[in-house]
Amino acid sequence: MMILVILFVAAATGLVAYYLSAKKNITYWKERGIDGPPIKRPLFNHLDYLLAYEKPSCFTLEEWTKKYGPLYGIYCGFLRILVISDPDMVHEMFIKKFEYFHGRMNTVALGDVDKNPRIHVFNARGARWKRLRTITNPSFSVSSLRRIYPIVEDACNVTTSFLDKAYAKNEAFNIHPYFHELTMDVISRVAMGQKGTLQFQNPDVTLIKNVFLGFGGSKLEHYLYLAPSLSEYTRHIFMAYLAITAAPLRRMINKLEKAVRERIELKERGLGAPAGEPNDFIDIYIDAIDDSIVDGAYKKSGDKVIKRLTEDEIVGQCMIFLLAGFDTTANTLALTCWFLARYPEIQERLIEEVDDVCGDPSKPIGYDQLPELKYADCVMKETLRMHPIAPFAASLPPRVNAWNRRPLATFRLKRALWS
Ligand code: HEM
Ligand SMILES: *[C@@H]1O[C@H](CO)[C@@H](O)[C@H](O)[C@H]1NC(C)=O
Ligand SMILES: *[C@@H]1O[C@H](CO)[C@@H](O)[C@H](O)[C@H]1NC(C)=O
């Protein structure tokens, strides 16, 4: 009985302390003279807005920016976030003070990105990010892009033939799915070892679309924001939840784990691609496998980076290439088409440029013509300017995870901005 009473008193004290700390936390910005939008729901604070499914956070942030200016504070659960949009400040943080902002604003469900084994270049920070990035960079070198060009061309040819069929029906149709098929085909063939085209017969297109639909939609994930500093532990609950509900994200990861494992075993049996002659990104990564990596502290320059990856990181890297290469490119292409349809005079000018640069029937169209297609480049960039894709990737800019035991993002922000 006595023990129960003591436990009860301890729990009650804990809750009161927690409540007071939470209350104090939401005066943090005000105390520093920084304005911000009102809170929607106590404890969760602005989280509901930021993870709202019906209205992506970029629109909410845009509205707040109009109202509160280029610098305001919000609270994502107990995570304190300073939202900035002043170009000079953004430049200061992303470029000049990069040594303080070398991590992205990730979901709390990842825990500590220095420790979580399954982290990729998009989520990593500091020395780990630099290591992963050093391995990834050559994938996008000119020689690598030249090498994969025939695959991209073939995938485009397949899409074109599907589009021709749709066009022949002489009815309006939605072009977006065609680009989803195209980008999935390209990324699967150049990065994941898929042999030949699978357009309109690849079940993974539906799966990956569902992965995107699932992001931010879990209430459990919202609760993790109530104790950001415990996320290194609570993330396991979240992962278990994904497994139990057979969430699309979990199913995608399972597939990638299996693909990577199979490839490693093939290699061990001497049946894989020879070292230095990779078939795709997985081979490049497997050549660099090493499960005993310890990252040091991040320094802006002078670091010698080992070009090594763990098996977990390989799965992570495949995941991010799949996710980042699929939706972004498909949406950009679809939006570009939409604009070209709406502005026929731009379309005419673009056709003229393509005819000029690629019109000579004696010369095959290839990688070399791409830099000459200057107007095409402008059209794409203008599309992205009007409809920024993946703004969340950069719209909450503290590139340091505040829920880490490291100094807080807000503190770092302050130091970087006002020192
Ligand atoms: C039109 C197409 C694309 C758009 C609009 C786009 C957009 C973005 C944005 C806004 C970021 C954040 C940048 C920052 O933090 O400063 C980003 C990062 C990233 N993207 Fe893309 N992306 C596109 C295509 C791709 C493709 C095709 C891949 C891979 C195959 C890819 C892989 C990545 C990776 C790995 C990162 C993290 C880089 C790092 O932190 O070092 N993206 N992307
Ligand atoms: C208040 O904020 C600090 C710093 O972000 C954090 O360590 C603390 O856990 C927060 N309070 C609560 C109740 O989460
Ligand atoms: C794509 O189609 C064009 C035009 O029909 C053709 O010249 C080219 O060889 C095709 N590319 C591939 C990789 O099959």
Automatic annotation (TrEMBL):
Keyword annotations: Heme, Iron, Metal-binding, Monooxygenase, Oxidoreductase, Signal
Cofactor entry: heme
Record keyword Aminoacyl-tRNA synthetase present: no
Signal sequence, renumbered to the chain: 1-17
Presence of keyword Disulfide bond: no
Top-level taxon: Eukaryota
GO molecular-function term, one example from the UniProt record: iron ion binding
Family (UniProt): Belongs to the cytochrome P450 family.
Protein name: Cytochrome P450
